[in-house]
Structure formats: C-alpha cells, structure tokens
Amino acid sequence: MPMTFALSAARIAGLAAVAALPACTMAPDRSTPSPAALQQHVTHEGVAYLADVAPGRPGAMLTSGGALPVPGMTVAVWRTVTPLAQDQGGLAKGVARAACEQQGMTFNPRAIGSFAGAGEWRFAGACT
After folding, report:
1. Contact by Cβ (8 Å): 63, 46
2. What is the DSSP string of 50-114?
3. Where is the signal peptide (predicted)?
C-alpha cells in the first residue's frame, strides 16, 4: 500500500509539471502593461520598438569571480511588426538602454539579458 501511494503521488506530480508547460511557452499578453510598468515607444536605429520598465527580480552580471546580483528595474523589449529573434540580444540591449535613458535612468550594460520567447527580450535589474 505505501508503494502504491508513492507511485500515485509521483504520477500526480508529473502530470502537474506537464500541465504547467504550456504556461511557460505562451506568448506574453501585451494588451495591457504590468501595473507598475512604464510602457513606452522606443526608436532605436530608426526602428520602432515597445518596452516595459518595471520592478522585478534582481538580475545578474558575469565577473571574473562569478555571477553577481544586479538590483534595479527589469526592462522588457519587443516590436510588433517583426518579432525579435533569439539571436538579436545585442540589438535588444540597445533598445533596453534607450528605454532606460528615456525614463531618466541608467542602463547597466553588464546585466545579462534573456530571450523570453514570443519576440521578447528581458534584462532583469538592468535599469536604475
């Protein structure tokens, strides 16, 4: 009997994990910005983008001694016509910098960006 319970609990946990997968891959809902976000239009190298500058978790930057936390606002960038691709991190970083500067903030270029999927790049802790 204890073995049956353990197996059933494992199956339930596995099914719960599989059920959560679609939430990880769904496109972000951009119909409304997050409540604390400062959503804005940004032009970078002659192309229009959208960006959210909002409170978020600390980011990270790589140093010779390892990764260090980067406190600050999170910057999310995307464009509506042609979505950003996974290989456009450098371009996205330039847009994120412009978004921070438009808000009168400073962008930390050492903050690590991540491709969030659905054409969106995020730079956690990058804007102070």
Report:
1. no
2. EEEEE----EEEEETTEEEEE-SEEEEEE-SSSPPPTT-HHHHHHHHHHHHHHTT--B-TTBPEE
3. 1-19
In this prediction the pTM is 0.71
Please list the pLDDT of the chain residue by residue as tens digits (128 residues): 454 444 344 444 443 443 333 333 344 444 444 445 668 999 999 999 999 999 999 999 999 999 999 999 999 999 988 999 999 999 999 999 999 999 999 999 999 999 999 999 999 999 99
Q: Residue 24, SS3?
A: helix
Range 95-111 burial, b when 16+ CB lie within 10 A, else e: bbbbbbeebebebbeeb
Domain ranges of the chain: 40-127
- Degrees, nearest 5: CA angle 69-72-74: 100
Which residues partner with 2 through β-bridges? none
